[in-house]
Design goal:
five-stranded parallel sheet, single chain, six-stranded antiparallel sheet, 5 domains, Elongation Factor Tu (Ef-tu), domain 3, alpha/beta
């Protein structure tokens, strides 16, 4: 790409400079070439440069619309970016900031704020929103009288504390004196259309005051720091996924294991999809045809009936297989289905949130229909359901090693309920129904909150029990390809050594080659007393603390509700034991690590 650009133009470089550049380009892989190309293009188009800054049109003293976002998987960041684009298209001055990079003391200078934030776990803020979320409750939080704010939340209504973080932010801003000028939106997983409507409404509310401030202050050119351009975004996105070939689905747990874990390889050949270790892959799946046919029988719907989904017309059977959520239960479905069927039992649940939660927890949507059959029109059933959402999996490979492939580590979700076997939507599809060679729709989801250190000499500690090993396989492949000299320490856990040691041969190979400095394994059921990764951390207390003091980055991947919290507590105990700090000081130590991007989590 770069060579063709060089050769196509009358070069202002000397022949010696061209030869040097061609030599450098020859050492780069295609992804690196694309990045350098974008970087050079960005600098060429940046305008007049003075001492490393680009002259960028801005408004004198007029306060901008500050967009603060907190995002766990990238969805909130995507909505915030669209909000920025729409605001700029109206001629508004905008500042887009990740909450992790925002100095809370800057709040007292703000006049117009929008908050775009997701919620995960038990109503918890995403990691990059934690500090600001907490700061707003402290005595240090400034009065915000005269500040205008609008909040949009992203969440999943199948969880109890739906969009709780957005509710928290609005409440805390209001208590500090800020005025909500546009109604908060709490958006479910199928949020695109509603987010677009909210953006239009919020900007309509902000625009008059923002433009009045801009006109009052007058425009001028302000020097702004410039940065290298990000790699070009793929044409394939959540809204426009790539139909990739499923190359390999291989079981990597033993025959007698209590877990069914699959190593999955997907070809990205023919796409422009790139990813970085730490990113996730979004995978769309097909619902079980046999269960779809059962649903149609229970609702007495003709499989060939035509239905509308947005602007698309298709048969109800195809819609249920390809387009609609039929596994993960959520209150919205029960409410709509209760109204459509007139079921007295379901209508009672609608009035009792606690009973509703208890009811949907063990049930998939298939179960609810099976236990409450009723004759329905095809379109009525479709209108009760939400769009099928891609499932996100931590990527288990580095493109430096596997090139036009992407690898996943998928644990099959399986359980018995109401007299039949139940499978997870996507894991059931990949592990049981999809055949090697078939097409599966995918897209990459970038995660800037889970990244290897830029400096290859920096040591890292990785804690990844079970399928949490996935991103650390990618980290190790990447560090191997880079010939990184930094030390690497892996903590891995699972029930049994003989049945559940995922990627055992690879890990032992990295240990033998010296890429892995240390490996500590915790096979919880191989002895009378259960042993977990947090126990192994405590056993290595002094050395773990020494690594942290030497600048190590610490990573956790896996279960958010128990494992990640247990590991966090183990770290608090390790810091207290080796430094003499108390609980509060140890927690502050970890907050400081997080602020420095040295304590990162990819939890679910």
């Amino acid at each position: 790409m770069l060579l063709s650009q060089l050769n196509a133009a009358a070069s202002p470089l000397s022949q010696e400079q061209v030869q040097k550049l061609q030599g450098l380009v020859a050492e780069l892989n295609p992804i690196q070439q694309a990045w350098v190309s974008g970087y050079l293009a960005a600098n060429a188009n940046a305008g007049a440069l003075t001492g490393g800054v680009a002259a960028t049109p801005a408004v004198g003293d007029a306060p901008p619309l500050t967009i603060l976002y907190g995002s766990q998987t990238g969805n909130a960041k995507g909505v915030a970016s669209k909000l920025k684009e729409q605001a700029e298209s109206r001629g508004l001055t905008v500042k887009l900031v990740n909450m992790a990079d925002y100095k809370p003391t800057a709040l007292k200078k703000e006049k117009f704020i929008t908050v775009v934030v997701s919620t995960y776990g038990e109503g918890e803020p995403p990691e990059d929103a934690e500090s600001l979320h907490e700061f707003l409750t402290t005595k240090k939080a400034p009065k915000l009288d005269g500040v205008k704010v609008a909040v949009i939340g992203l969440g999943d209504s199948s969880y109890e504390f739906f969009c709780q973080t957005a509710k928290d932010f609005e409440e805390r801003f209001n208590k500090l004196g800020a005025e909500t000028i546009f109604q908060r939106a709490d958006l479910d997983v199928d949020y695109d259309d509603e987010a677009a409507k909210w953006i239009d409404g919020a900007l309509d509310a902000f625009e008059p005051d923002l433009k009045a401030q801009q006109q009052a202050s007058g425009g001028q050119v302000v020097a702004m720091p410039f940065a290298a351009a990000a790699p070009a975004a793929s044409q394939y996105t959540k809204q426009n996924p790539f139909a990739a070939e499923l190359s390999v689905v291989q079981k990597i747990t033993g025959r007698d294991s209590t877990k069914d874990v699959r190593h999955v390889e997907i070809s990205l050949e023919g796409s422009d999809i790139t990813y970085t270790p730490g990113d996730s892959l979004g995978v769309y799946f097909l619902n079980d045809e046999a269960l779809v046919d059962e649903v149609l029988t229970l609702t007495q719907i003709d499989a060939s009936s035509t239905v509308k989904l947005g602007d698309e017309e298709l048969s109800v059977r195809d819609a249920l297989i390809e387009k609609l959520e039929l596994t993960q239960s959520y209150p919205g479905f029960v409410e709509k289905y209760a109204t459509a069927t007139g079921s007295p039992d379901l209508l009672k649940l609608v009035e009792d949130k606690a009973a509703m939660r208890e009811y949907i927890e063990p049930r998939q949507i298939f179960d609810i229909i099976r236990q409450n059959p009723a004759q329905l029109e095809a379109q009525t059933l479709v209108d009760c359901l939400r769009k099928l959402q891609a499932r996100l999996y931590s990527i288990a490979s580095s493109q430096a090693e596997v090139e036009e492939e992407v690898h996943l580590t998928v644990g099959l979700v399986e359980f018995d309920a109401f007299g039949s076997e139940h499978l997870g939507g996507c894991s059931g599809y990949l592990a049981r129904r999809a055949e090697e060679g078939c097409k599966v729709k995918v897209f990459s989801e970038h995660n800037d909150n889970f990244r290897l250190p830029a400096n290859d000499e920096t040591p890292i500690i990785m804690v990844g029990p079970g399928t949490g090993i996935a991103p650390f396989r990618a980290f190790l492949q990447e560090r191997d390809a880079r010939e990184a000299s930094g030390k690497n320490w892996l903590f891995f856990g699972n029930p049994h050594f003989t049945q559940d040691f995922l990627y055992q041969v690879e890990i032992q190979g990295y240990l033998k080659s010296g890429l892995l400095t240390k490996v500590d394994v915790a096979f919880s059921r191989d002895q009378a007393e259960k042993v977990y990764v947090q126990d192994k951390l405590r056993k290595n207390s002094q050395e773990v603390f020494a690594w942290l003091e030497a600048g190590a980055h610490f990573y956790i991947c896996g279960d958010a509700n128990r494992m990640a919290k247990d590991v966090h507590q183990a770290l608090v105990d390790i810091i207290k034991e080796n430094s003499g700090k108390d609980d509060e000081q140890a927690e502050q130590y970890l907050k400081d690590l997080r602020s420095a991007n040295r304590y990162q989590k990819d939890v679910y």
